[in-house]
Amino acid sequence: MKKIIATLTAILAMGFSSSFAGTLVINTDLTDPAPKAAFEWAFNKFQEENPDVTIEVNNFDHEGYKQAIRNFLTTSPPDVFNWYAGNRMLPFVRAGLVEDVSDIWSDTGWVDGNLTEGMSHAKKPMTIGGKQWGIPYTYYQWGVYYRKDIFDANGISVPTTWDEFVAATAGVFDYLNLRTNGYEFHMALTKGEIPYTDPRVHAVFDKWDELVKPGYFLENHASLAWQEAIPPMINGEAAMYVMGNFSVALFKEGGLTNDNLGFFQFPEITPGLPMAEEAPTDTMHIASGAKNKTDAKRFLIFLSRADVQEEMNKTLGQLPVNSGSKVDPDPFLEAGLNMLNNAYAMAQFYDRDAPAEMASEGMKGFQEYMVNPDRRDKILERLEKVRQRVYK
Question: Which residue, among 92, 26, 97, has the nearest Cα to 59 in the 3D structure?
Answer without folding.
Answer: 26
